[in-house]
Automatic annotation (TrEMBL):
It comes from Dictyobacter kobayashii. This is Response regulatory domain-containing protein.
Length: 138
C-alpha cells in the first residue's frame, strides 16, 4: 500500500529529493509550492495521510499550512534550520507533531515518517507528541 503525503516545499531541487526518496519507500509525495496548492492537496483523492512542511519556506504562510493539515486530522512533520529555534517553537505551537533539523530530515526522511505514523497510530493524531529523540535543534 502506498502512503500519500502532501508536502509544502518551494525549493525545486529539494522537492525532487523528497519525491524520489519517498517513492523508494512506497510513499507518494505531492509537492505544493504555495499555501493554496497545499490546501488543494489536502483535499486530493486519494487523501494524504501525512503532511510535511518546510518551516524555512519564505513567502508562504507555513503556519497556516500546519493548521490546515491538523484541521484535517493529519500528522505533521516539519523541518527547518537547526539554528532557528523561534521557527521550531512556532511550528509546534501551530500544531506540528514533530520538528526536526534539515540534516535529520534529509538523512532519515522515511524513518521519521514511519515513526511519526506509528506514534499517531498508538496515541491518536490529537494526542501524539513530539519525540525528542529525533530533534537536533538543541
Amino acid at each position: 500500500m502506498t502512503t500519500s503525503i502532501i508536502a509544502l516545499e518551494k525549493d525545486l531541487f529539494f522537492s525532487v529529493k523528497i519525491r524520489d526518496t519517498l517513492r523508494h519507500h512506497a510513499m507518494e509525495a505531492t509537492i505544493a509550492r504555495t499555501l493554496a496548492a497545499f490546501e488543494q492537496g489536502l483535499n486530493a483523492t486519494p487523501a494524504p495521510t501525512l503532511a510535511i512542511v518546510d518551516i524555512a519556506t519564505i513567502g508562504v504562510d507555513w503556519e497556516a499550512a500546519i493548521r490546515a493539515a491538523r484541521a484535517r486530522q493529519l500528522p505533521v512533520l516539519a523541518f527547518g534550520s537547526h539554528m532557528d529555534l523561534e521557527a521550531r517553537t512556532r511550528a509546534l505551537k501551530a500544531g506540528a507533531h514533530k520538528v526536526v533539523a534539515n540534516s535529520k530530515f534529509s538523512t532519515d526522511m522515511p524513518g521519521l515518517i514511519n515513526r511519526l505514523r506509528d506514534t499517531v497510530t498508538k496515541q491518536g493524531v490529537s494526542n501524539a507528541v513530539e519525540d525528542e529523540e529525533d530533534s537536533e535543534f538543541d
